[in-house]
Hints:
Shape: globular
Largest sheet: 10 strands, mixed
CATH superfamily of the largest domain: Alkaline Phosphatase, subunit A
Number of helices: 20
Strand content: 15-25%
Number of domains: 2
Structural class: alpha/beta
CATH architecture of the largest domain: 3-Layer(aba) Sandwich
Distance between the termini: 50 Å
Low-confidence stretches: 302-312
Number of strands: 23
Amino acid sequence: MMTDVPPPAVRRVMVVGLDGATWDLITPWVRQGKLPHLAQLLTEGAHGPLASTIPPISAPAWVSFMTGVNPGKHGIYHFQEHVPNSYQARLVSGADVKAPTIWRILSDAGKSSIAVNVAMTFPPERVNGIVIAGVDAPGTGSQYTYPPELAKELESAIGEYIIEPGLVEHTRRGRYDAAFQAIMHAMEQRFKAVEYLMATKPWNLFVVNFRATDNIQHHFWHFLDPAHPLYDPQSAGRYGDCILRVYQRLDEWIGVLRRRLDAEAALILVSDHGAGPASAKAVYFNRWLAQQGWLTFVGERSRSLAGRLRAGLMGFLWKSIWHYLRKWLGKRTKDTIRRLFPTLYDRARSPASYFAIDWAHTQAYSDEFREAIWVNLRGREPQGIVSPGEEYERLRREIARRLSESLIDPETGEHIVERVYLREELYHGPYAEQAPDIFVQLREEPYYRTRLSHTARRPDPVQTLSREELLEDFLPPGLHRSEGIILLAGPNIKAGVQLHNASIMDIAPTILHLMGLPVPSHMDGRVLVEALERPGEVQYRDWGAGGPAERLGYSEEEEELVREKLAGLGYLG
């Protein structure tokens, strides 16, 4: 029962991010006695599923975690965004986050924070405390820490600091022993960094994200799951326990961490999304849109087969060549290419799925690296043909209806769409119009993944890929799920409570309330009062600074480094 008496403030809050962690794995392993420290936390604290953003992508999810708001207010929907009035895309970074982060809010309240390895924190924000950027940082050669001198201090204290272990070069060649060792080494170095910072720096909030859980699940799930289409008994004998071993090592470290936290510190475990096995099912949204008459591929209106292939393939070939050239060419040479061949240079910055589209005869399209559809809107897209207003709304409603009714797996006859959302059904705020027009929530059992239409071997928009196709295209055997985890323990936290309806946006306001601070009234998340012994009355206030501090984004060289890394992680097409 709520009272007007404020609860005793927690002096410190420690947040451990287990990127992509899922109760689907943790719960049975806890029951089997394989994760003893997590088992103890489950009895001593409050826990439950945690709804991610839709779609469950790390970039918007972690930003919603750190800001307490939906993407319509913080402006991040993916690791890249459409460039206005173009068919190009640009990478986004922490500099593009439009809402204040919890470490900025705490700085204004005179509290200190340490944030380590959280996505979308590059370039690191100037706060009262420390920020070590996450997966969106170009590398340790960039200024990835605040304060800048911390990078050398950290290297002297622990040795090499690893932002991302770089697994694709190993897994593409079947070197899973090397990939596993890289994951474990990066995790151990993160442990050392956290322990050093905890011991030597002041903090009221400490947030660290371990990407080891996400990395191992993306690359090793087929060794764990006998039902997986890529399962091989012999390889499973060697690597089938690798995911468990990552969870167990984190479980051991959490036990050490709990012993180091004092009685006035609360501990929160959180994941940005869940995880599960990828099936052999693939969806090609642009093929489906073409089948429905809303998209035309280049050359389709030509009677010549050569004409139907030439334009799209030439554009895609240029993009492929540029992908390799950009790694070797110097800035002066790239500037010359940009000056002499501006059209080709700009097209190289477009998503790969766009090269085969005849824009003048297309009403709707997808970038195909997420479950979303854009309307080719006049006045917004450079060759838009759909009028704003009634025509736009009518087209969106009809696309949504047909997605729900006619996107069917030809092999099973089953509908593959769980739900279709118009963007305003998901997002609200000053940046809601930056989102795609339609979002599609596909079935997760079996999991249907989006694929680029030009990679399809057959014309059907929904296909079951063969084992050979899965291997040839190097498709990750584990993918994201919409529900992550939340677990809270410590002072004023109820023991053994099952949480329901918790969202990734609820973490920031809950932390502030635990620390005895008012919640900014612009936050969309709520305080998880059901987890608290003495919840007290939640206090709200306007946050007066109006937004985060201005930061510069990527240089061109930094953007290329990050783009290559994110493509290797499967985030970019």
